[in-house]
From TrEMBL:
It catalyses: L-histidinol phosphate + 2-oxoglutarate = 3-(imidazol-4-yl)-2-oxopropyl phosphate + L-glutamate. It comes from Natrinema longum. The modification N6-(pyridoxal phosphate)lysine is found at K228. It is an enzyme of class 2 (transferase). Its cofactor is pyridoxal 5'-phosphate. Belongs to the class-II pyridoxal-phosphate-dependent aminotransferase family. Histidinol-phosphate aminotransferase subfamily. InterPro entries: Aminotransferase_I/II_large, HisP_aminotrans, HistidinolP_aminotransfase, PyrdxlP-dep_Trfase, PyrdxlP-dep_Trfase_major, PyrdxlP-dep_Trfase_small. The lineage of its organism: Archaea, Methanobacteriati, Methanobacteriota, Stenosarchaea group, Halobacteria. Its EC number is 2.6.1.9. Keywords: Amino-acid biosynthesis, Aminotransferase, Histidine biosynthesis, Pyridoxal phosphate, Transferase. Gene3D superfamilies: Aspartate Aminotransferase, domain 1, Type I PLP-dependent aspartate aminotransferase-like (Major domain). The gene is hisC. This is Histidinol-phosphate aminotransferase.
Length: 381
């Protein structure tokens, strides 16, 4: 026998790791830095690393108390009830849960293009049909309700990424509210805030809870992850914050114990490790500013822990940078063959990335937009 027809399905293309690249090129891993997957340059929260070590001897038990305690801690952080917090195996797991909780076979899901590949993958796993709305390069990938509504046709689920990966743009809460108002009662707006901590913006949890002058509503959910600001990408932990009305759906859709004992204990420690968060956000802001100022090509403004750079030929530039020891993300797979995405590193890493990129641009003599000018014509991209 065979699996079902998976011809519509596409494999996730993750950023490449140092070990993988070094082995392929027959070189020493220590020659490389990786700024390709928006990982935390300071590593995991130190408190979380201690918690993981301390939990090692008790992993023979299923995670029950730790799951309950982390749910309560996350709920307290947002001022919501425990039932509104859906812990999951990474933000990706939370994306799965929202699909499971909403989709009937053949329902439509509207996702941004360019955008995060896992939305569509998960939609297809759950027998949904994927449709796309465009974020326009000419508008600097600006996000507003109209960009989505232009393509909206009663889709059951609409994904908004704010800050957006890979461009760094955000959608203001007023626009998310306008979008939710303009769509059907039975349409869920899923606001992916995987990079929320790096942005100078309020969370869309305000829309769910009716804070800051917004009216409370039951058609918005928010996604968050421990992978980025907390530096826990390897343990796989994320969650959705959902409207109170949905509370009892979690027990019916979640994979039992998908958030592991190690993940929950790490999450509990990380959420209290304010110092690591502050340090990470500071480093990120400095790196973003440094790259915008010093890269000899157009760098879009970003509210994430990365920047998108117009290099003309992403594949050539990313390959050449990799040869010179700096691994960045070629955005061709996002539908942006002229752009690379560079994760904010430590000060030293960021400086090395900029120096390497500028040298590569000079050596390859590619035509790119001049720095700061996003309206200029772009050659061949
Ligand atoms: C990283 C990321 C996520 C979540 O990743 P996990 O590691 O599964 O938590 C979700 N959405 C976007 C846009 C991301 O970049």
């Amino acid at each position: 026998m065979q699996p079902r027809d998976l011809s519509d399905h596409v494999a996730y293309e993750a950023g490449r790791g140092i070990e993988e690249v070094a082995r392929e090129l027959g070189r020493d891993p220590s020659e490389f830095i990786k700024l390709a997957s928006n990982e935390n340059p300071h590593g995991p929260s130190p408190a979380a690393a201690v918690a993981i070590r301390e939990t090692a001897s008790s992993v023979s038990s299923y995670p029950k108390a730790a799951h309950a305690d982390l749910t309560t801690a996350v709920a307290a952080r947002w001022g919501v009830t425990d039932e509104q917090v859906w812990l999951a195996n990474g933000g990706d797991g939370a994306i799965d849960y929202l699909h499971r909780a909403t989709l009937e076979p053949g329902d439509d899901v509207l996702v941004p293009s360019p955008g995060f590949a896992y939305y569509g993958m998960s939609s297809r796993f759950h027998h949904g049909d994927v449709r796309e709305y465009d974020l326009e390069r000419e508008d600097d990938f600006e996000q507003d309700a109209d960009a989505v509504l232009e393509r909206y046709e009663g889709d059951r689920l609409v994904f908004v990424t704010s800050p957006h990966n890979p461009t760094g743009s955000t959608m203001p809460l007023e626009e998310i509210e306008r979008l939710a108002d303009a769509t059907d009662d039975e349409t869920l707006i899923a606001v992916d805030e995987a990079y929320g901590e790096f942005a100078d913006r309020d969370s869309a949890v305000a829309l769910i809870e009716g804070l800051d002058g917004f009216e409370a509503r039951d058609d918005v959910a928010v996604l968050r992850t421990f992978s980025k600001v907390y530096g826990l990408a390897g343990v796989r932990l994320g969650y959705a914050v959902v409207p109170e009305e949905w509370a009892d759906a979690y027990a019916r859709v979640n994979t039992p114990f998908a958030a592991s004992e190690l993940a929950c204990r790490a999450g509990l420690a990380a959420i209290d490790d304010e110092e690591h968060v502050v340090r990470t956000v500071e480093t990120t802001r400095e790196a973003r500013a440094y790259m915008r100022e010093h890269v000899d090509a157009h760098v879009w403004e970003s509210e994430g822990n990365f920047v998108l750079v117009d290099v003309g030929d992403a594949s050539a530039v990313a390959n050449e940078m990799q040869d010179r020891g700096v691994i960045v993300r070629d955005c061709s797979s996002f539908g942006l063959p002229g752009c690379i995405r560079i994760t904010c590193g430590t000060e030293a890493e960021t400086e090395r990335a900029v120096e390497t990129l500028n040298a590569v641009l000079k050596d390859l003599d590619l035509e790119t937009q001049p720095p700061g000018d996003s309206t200029a014509e772009v050659a061949d991209s």
